[in-house]
Amino acid sequence: MTDSPQRPLRVLAAMSGGVDSAVAAARAAEAGHEVTGVHLALSANPQSFRTGARGCCTVEDSRDARRAADVIGIPFYVWDLADRFKEDVVDDFVAEYEAGRTPNPCLRCNEKIKFAALLDKALALGFDAVCTGHYAKVIVREDGSRELHRASDMAKDQSYVLGVLDDRQLAHALFPLGDTVTTKDEIRAEAARRGLAVAKKPDSHDICFIADGDTQGFLAKRLGKAEGDIVDESGAKVGTHEGAYGFTIGQRKGLRIGTPAPDGKPRYVLDISPVNNTVTVGPAAALDVTALTAIKPRWCGTAPAGPGAYTAQLRAHGDETPVTAELVDGTLHVTFAEPVRGVAPGQAVVLYDGTRVVGSATIASTVRATEPAATT
């Protein structure tokens, strides 16, 4: 098996303005591919600057990407996908929180923007592949089929947020950093050797379209305040909130509960009910999840036939856990070998077979070892 094409390709390199995408584009060009750089203008406010921002969509990021392309010696363009990004990522993010779920906008961006809108446009223009700075590997088997695998360096692996990619998208994806068993400092050193000014640029983090990192404030501006009750497992009121959308399953901080728990131990968010605008809290043990169902499965290859043993990852930087999984009438049923905590509807469950990504699905419901009391 091999993880690199046998012939030079026409490659469209998505350049965010960060060090990873710049080094990925440079490596693709060095490998002999005909590379063109493109920066995606995703911000609804094109005049925004990096001051106070924590993402990768500012005017300065565009300029950083252009300077990197100039150093690499490749053509460079800026493509405006702000409207598509707002519809498929931002509006979806708000709607999911409003419905009491916890979305992952990075997965949605990879699925809908980088490997749908961007890839479709690239193919229409005659490009063979889209290149990004993600840490993951595409393995090409002898029969020509492709598999998505974890990066060589597990500390930087980003295959979880790529678990939404299907066969067609994998066939046109390049991840030049996937085989890099090096530290981020060494990637920065490589960028410096190549003369890329982004070598010392801080990493983007959090949600790119929430510049100050205040997710609750972002949602409040769009959904408005909606006061409701915080209740314990018995249904007794223990506090109030200004919008159930501001909470996630497993949350401990920021609950503003005036009444301590009888045992004096911390309480966590167990359930979010947008119907009656109620948030239920309880002890950590009540978060134990033994199984889940997930919808909208996407497979990085053939869908599993019958029940099987896998490992599952539930968060971008979460640990793997052994599971059994079975697809029944389009719904994925997952059972954990040991209970896990902090599993929220709206998140993605990504299945692995060793280092290979089998596929992903959106968590719809969970089964707990101890179910919280129903609220009315």
Q: What would you note in describing this structure?
A:
- The chain is α/β, with parallel strands linked by helices and 376 residues long.
- It is 23% helix and 29% strand.
- It has seven helices and 17 strands.
- The protein has a six-stranded antiparallel β-barrel with strand order 12-15-14-13-16-17. It has a five-stranded parallel sheet with strand order 3-2-1-4-7, with helices on both faces. A four-stranded mixed sheet has the order 9-8-11-10, with no helix packed on it.
- A hairpin with a 2-residue loop joins β16 (348-353) and β17.
- The longest helix is centred in the N-terminal third of the chain and has 20 residues, at 105-124.
- The N and C termini lie far apart (57 Å).
Fold blueprint:
Layout: E1 10-14, H1 19-30, E2 34-41, H2 59-72, E3 76-80, H3 82-98, H4 105-124, E4 129-131, E5 136-140, E6 146-150, H5 167-170, E7 173-174, H6 184-193, H7 215-223, E8 228-231, E9 237-241, E10 268-273, E11 278-282, E12 289-299, E13 308-313, E14 320-328, E15 331-340, E16 348-353, E17 356-368
Parallel strand pairs: 1-2, 1-4, 2-3, 4-7, 8-11
Antiparallel strand pairs: 5-6, 8-9, 10-11, 12-15, 12-17, 13-14, 13-16, 14-15, 16-17
Helix pairs in contact: 1-2, 1-6, 3-4
InterPro entries: MnmA-like (IPR004506), MnmA-like_C (IPR046885), MnmA-like_central (IPR046884), MnmA-like_central_sf (IPR023382), Rossmann-like_a/b/a_fold (IPR014729)
Domain tRNA-specific 2-thiouridylase MnmA-like C-terminal: 290-363
Site (Interaction with tRNA): 134, 347
